[in-house]
Fold:
Amino acid sequence: MTNEKLERIEAHITKLNGNLTHGKRVLFLSKLIAEKESIPYDEDILVFTAYFHDVAAYPFYKDRFTGIFDHALESSKLVPELAKVYCFNDSQIETIVEATKYHDKVKMRSCNETQLIRNADGVDYLGYMAVFRDITKFPNDLKKSSRDIKTAQRTIFYDY
Ligand SMILES: [Fe+2]
Ligand SMILES: [Fe+2]
Structure:
């Protein structure tokens, strides 16, 4: 993906008040997993999905939903239109929809990108949980939280 396209995507996420740092971490972690496990993937699909997989939960769209909603399912309904803006073709959009829809559901995949995004998202979530847990338990030891998030992000549980 070109730097110009990536900058457009990041500006788009910022405009939607989305979680840009989560998107960046999911992208970084998914590429790391792919490299370590020699899993082939489409770069453009992985980048787009890393940034947009939670789009329905972003403040810009969230008000459309009431009560508890499946943010992955709702995001998968939003991504086709968003992906067209970045000139993805129908086959690529099909993969983006699958990876978005199943990014929080175990054993539901056929595409490598779905597996990569799901595992990266899970690792990032583990990092958050470790920090929240430690801040609660050890509010005066933020260094411990920082150490633990690094460890958590190294502890990858795979969903094959
Ligand atoms: Fe999510
Ligand atoms: Fe996520």
